[in-house]
């Protein structure tokens, strides 16, 4: 499939360096991206569930984020569904960027995997 037909969906925030790198990665390769700014619109629960099914909820949580500390979640022991609800409500707790090409998913900066996506 030529890159012109591809569209990668990227979830993140403009302030996040890894998200900016991901957007630049695809732009440099002339791949269309659909950027979802999590500060303007939270990721849908169903979308988060897709990533959680592949990687596990734990991989979605950015335990180093300032927001994680602010909310005092260091000792929180929640089930997966509760975490997904929290992540949908508090997108700054998500590890960024989340990228999706059709059924292929990545969390964080994964340029090696993205190069494979693009063939």
Detailed description of the structure:
There is one protein chain. This protein is an alpha+beta fold. It has one domain (3-118): 3-Layer(aba) Sandwich (Glutaredoxin), CATH 3.40.30. The chain has six helices and four strands, in the order βαβααααββα. The protein has helices spanning 17-28, 45-55, 57-60, 66-70, 80-89, 111-118; strands at 7-12, 32-37, 98-101, 104-107. It has a four-stranded mixed β-sheet with strand order 2-1-3-4, sandwiched between helices. A hairpin with a 2-residue loop joins strand 3 (98-101) and strand 4. Helix 2 crosses helix 5 (80-89). The longest helix has 12 residues, at 17-28. The protein starts with 6 loop residues before the first strand and ends with a helix. The model has no long low-confidence stretch (mean pLDDT 93).
List keywords for this structure.
119 residues; alpha+beta; Glutaredoxin; four-stranded mixed sheet; 4 strands; 42% helix; 17% strand
Task: Please outline the helices and strands.
Layout: E1 7-12, H1 17-28, E2 32-37, H2 45-55, H3 57-60, H4 66-70, H5 80-89, E3 98-101, E4 104-107, H6 111-118
Parallel strand pairs: 1-2
Antiparallel strand pairs: 1-3, 3-4
Q: In short, what is this structure?
A:
The protein is built from six helices and four strands. It has 119 residues and is an alpha+beta fold.
């Amino acid at each position: 499939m030529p890159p012109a037909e591809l569209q990668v969906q990227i979830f993140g925030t403009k302030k996040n360096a890894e998200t900016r790198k991901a957007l630049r990665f695809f732009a440099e390769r002339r791949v269309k991206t659909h950027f979802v700014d999590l500060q303007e619109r939270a990721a849908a629960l169903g979308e988060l569930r897709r990533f959680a099914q592949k990687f596990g909820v734990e991989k979605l949580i950015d335990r180093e984020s300032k927001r994680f500390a602010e909310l005092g979640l260091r000792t929180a022991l929640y089930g997966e569904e509760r975490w997904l609800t929290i992540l949908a409500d508090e997108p700054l707790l998500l590890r960024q960027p989340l990228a999706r090409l059709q059924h292929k998913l990545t969390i964080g900066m994964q340029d090696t995997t993205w190069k494979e996506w693009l063939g």
